[in-house]
Amino acid sequence: MIEAFVLVVVKPGNEEKVYNALAKEEKVKEIYRVYGEYDIIIRVEVENIHELDRFHDEVLRKISNIEMTETLIASSYRG
């Protein structure tokens, strides 16, 4: 299982539209509206890197009001 955080920049004034589109996606586990350089942060869970690729290509890139994303793949500090 891969857990990733996707930082999203949205076209101004379209945050709610993007939020609603992302909320429908089963791989999206959490969505936060944030202040600063990014507008939304989502937590995504996928089985493998290929599913993450598909999520980017088939979900994120098809939401026209998203201007930019940055994906951070999470890792644990367990020794």
TrEMBL record:
Q: Which residues form a coiled coil?
A: none
Q: Where is the Transcription regulator AsnC/Lrp ligand binding domain?
A: 6-74
Q: Which Pfam families does the entry link to?
A: AsnC_trans_reg
The organism's superkingdom is given as Archaea
- Name recorded for this polypeptide: AsnC family transcriptional regulator
The organism named in the record is: Thermococcus barossii
